[in-house]
Amino acid sequence: MVELVEYIVRQLVSEPDSVKVTMEEIDGVNQVSVSVAPQDTGKIIGKQGKIAMAIRTVVKAVGIREGKKYTVEIIDGE
Asked: How far, in Å, CA of 19 to CA of 48, rounded?
């Protein structure tokens, strides 16, 4: 899952080398954390949060297929 989210986010940002995606399990839910450069945060969130919602939808769909629960958290730039 980390690879999928990292691939999607790298295609959207202007500084792909600053993208960091990590995953940890909290209470049976896999939390995927995405960190990008400060100037790229808006590109990941999108207008009215539509891009972030789309990323979460893709992750949720893959999670259903795998039988696991995932959440996506976007962390403010470094």
From this structure: 22
